[in-house]
Design goal:
Blueprint lengths: L1 H15 L8 H30 L4 H12 L9 E6 L13 H13 L4 E4 L20 E10 L2 E5 L8 H4 L3 E3 L11 E2 L1 E3 L1 E4 L2 E4 L1 H10 L4 H7 L12 E3 L8 H5 L1 E2 L3 H6 L9 E6 L3 H4 E4 L7 H9 L11 E2 L1 H12 L15 H30 L4 H30 L6 H23 L4
Parallel strand pairs: 1-11, 1-12, 2-3, 2-12, 3-5, 6-13
Antiparallel strand pairs: 3-4, 7-10, 8-9, 13-14
Length: about 450
């Protein structure tokens, strides 16, 4: 131990005396490691962060949402059930399930006390008709499709010959999720409703929320927007905020082929619950990555952008119906946060927030400038100037992160702050370089 201490002191002394010059093997090795690993990672961080910012996946907004999701326990999840037509080989009928299978199951669920059955299906037109039991009148919500052509919107409702007006009572909503898939192959946002020419076109989850929680009139919603939560804006994208107890669905997911036995054995209680019914047997077609966490770690983001890897969600792929369930729970729990793609409509409030961020950056850069001047006057070293620059950049990053988290939690705004942060780092780096030149030349 004594020999190690003596050798360390001699090494420090030799470094101070200049024995370890810039051409020493140690310094060469350090420069080589920086060139091979540190600089490429920094460059990848800058490039990927900028690309994410322009693709509405700003790193500050994503990490703020992740932080909120950690403490988000949905209180509405106990009032829903998920029943799926899965790939079971014991039921004795061919895949996929028929319309008769679907409506017979709906009838069983309603008779057993289900308040509402939400069908994650898009029914096409067919010459074959299936008689739907009258017990399902105003008890089911089915999928529709909303097609967008520029600024115009057109809704394609379920076929009338299958769903008579007297039975369905306009209880349908947009079921498509493909237009919300992000750069990493994940569904992380949703438009709750479109509005055009005085007509409202709700999503499947919003219609389910309206029927289950407001006992609402679908005609009034579609014509006057009655029952739509006040915090929601039309034609606007919102984050899908995944509750940390969503994993309970995996434990409670019921097979449509076996649910009759479970009901007979009283294993489940459907009274007053909202039941989501979907097909999950085709994994390649109807399974997706879900939520902001699916962007993965920074390394995975770099590999994804570079094309060396595909997106891999933390919980892997889940059935698409989960996205509708999450959107429904967000409405029940009032967890609606604007997505960066559509928050420009906030106007003045958003402008004030960004002005505050700008003023904060200027303030801390000015403090850094004065601090380096003080260091140089007091004979500060190169290491002290560099350390102060890193400290200033890190502090600005922390301020921006907590600003993004606070604005999302209090106002539901997603701040895209990556470019602001990188600009601040560039300015600090420039000032640090100037100060290092002054230190080398012994100028104040």
């Amino acid at each position: 131990m004594r020999k190690w201490i003596i050798s360390t002191l001699l090494l420090v002394r030799s470094k101070k005396s200049g024995c370890m010059d810039e051409n020493s093997y140690t310094n060469r090795l350090i420069r080589f490691l920086f060139i091979m690993f540190v600089y490429p990672l920094l460059a990848a961080f800058v490039v990927v962060s900028v690309l994410d910012s322009f693709s509405d996946n700003d790193i500050f907004a994503v990490y703020a949402l992740r932080d909120l999701e950690r403490s988000y326990v949905s209180r509405g999840i106990d009032n829903i059930e998920l029943v799926t037509f899965d790939r079971s080989y014991t039921h004795g009928t061919p895949f996929p399930e028929s319309r008769t299978d679907i409506f017979e199951l709906c009838n069983i669920l309603v008779e057993r006390g289900a308040k509402l059955v939400v069908l994650d299906y898009l029914f096409g037109y067919s010459d074959k008709t299936v008689e739907i039991p009258k017990t399902l009148t105003d008890k089911i919500v089915v999928g529709s499709e909303v097609a967008r052509f520029g600024s115009s919107v057109e809704e394609i409702p379920p076929p009338k010959h299958l769903f008579p007006e007297a039975l369905i009572k306009k209880n349908w909503g947009d079921v498509s999720v493909f237009d919300t898939i992000d750069r990493y192959g994940a569904i992380n946002s949703l438009i709750h409703y479109y509005k055009l020419n005085g007509n409202y076109y709700p999503s499947l989850s919003l219609m389910a929320y309206h029927k289950a929680n407001n006992d609402g009139d679908s005609y009034a919603l579609r014509k006057h927007g009655t029952g739509i939560p006040k915090q929601l804006q039309d034609n606007t994208r919102y984050w899908l905020t995944v509750p940390n107890n969503l994993g309970e669905l995996k434990k409670r997911q019921l097979s449509a082929w076996e649910i009759e036995d479970a009901l007979l054995l009283h294993d489940i209680d459907l009274k007053g619950k909202v039941v989501f019914l979907a097909s999950t047997w085709d994994v390649k077609k109807d399974h997706f990555y879900l939520g902001a966490n699916s962007t993965g770690t920074f390394l995975k983001r770099v590999l994804n952008w570079s094309g060396f890897a595909k997106s891999n969600g933390i919980d892997d792929k889940v059935p698409g119906v989960w996205s509708h369930i999450v959107a429904y729970l967000n409405l029940v729990d009032k967890r609606t946060y604007l997505h960066p793609a559509d928050q420009s409509r906030e106007g003045v409030s958003l402008l004030l927030v960004y002005f505050f961020i700008f003023a904060t950056c200027v303030f801390f850069i000015a403090i850094y400038y004065q601090a380096t001047n003080y260091l140089i006057r007091k004979g500060g070293t190169l290491i002290e100037v560099k350390g102060l620059a890193i400290l200033a950049a890190g502090f600005i990053g922390m301020i921006m992160y907590f600003s993004a988290l606070t604005m999302m939690a209090l106002l539901g705004l997603s701040l895209s702050l990556t470019l602001w942060f990188l600009l601040s780092v560039v300015i600090i780096s420039f000032l640090a370089a100037r100060r290092l030149d002054n230190v080398k030349s012994n100028k104040p």
